[in-house]
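Table 4 source record.
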Amino acid sequence: MDYLINIGSGFDLNNTFGCGQCFRWEEQPDGSFSGIVKGRYLHISRRGNTVVLQNCSKEDFQAVWQDYFDLDTDYDGIRQSLIQQNHCLQCAVDSIDGIRILRQEPWEALCSFIISQNNNIPRIKGIVSRLCEAFGTPVDGGYTFPSAEMLAECSVEELAPLRAGFRARYLIDAARKVASGMVDLEKMYTLPIEDCRRELMSITGVGAKVAECTLLYGLHRLEAFPIDVWMKKALATLFHDITPESLGAYAGVAQQYIFHYSRLHPELVEAK
């Protein structure tokens, strides 16, 4: 039995899964996607204005997917709020539609963005896939993401088959600190964001960008604003009157629009 969501243009699968916030959704030849969240496999597709969750019951939708896809958040309202707040964001907001910030599991997001350092998306996805296959639990459609407790028992040598390079040491340090409670991800949903940043950056190899990505994509702290080299260029050239602080509660959503617009127009970023 399929579950149907009539959501108009407010949920674009390509833009949501392809914006760099997640690494375990696989696009299929027909344009649909499949992935595993909290041990549950889902195949999802788009038919006109309807999003189709295949073999998904109403109970599964309410228990997992409604929250995961952040379907109760008014992104149209956020878009309008950002434009009213700063009119120079109009071009960026208009450049893409249907991105939703997924409510991923914090531990998976932390590991994924540790792996993402100095890496490209195909390699990130490959390492994450091997990590799940080696240390996760088999479920329908693949494997769960391994727990911090599982990885905390591993050595760098045991992670060698992942081909994660220097990141293996960072993953193990993260696992041991999370498993021991030294880094408490659950508390970060409500702690002051500066406290969260400090705690995350106590993990070996976790700098400002990985911490911001974990906060935004794993803990749904929408005020978080990841900055990489490309974003620095975009802010310095196209959006020089904007700072993360000036964007307020929805800075992380604005970041998605700014990043996409600047990648669409690299000639503008590089020419300034």
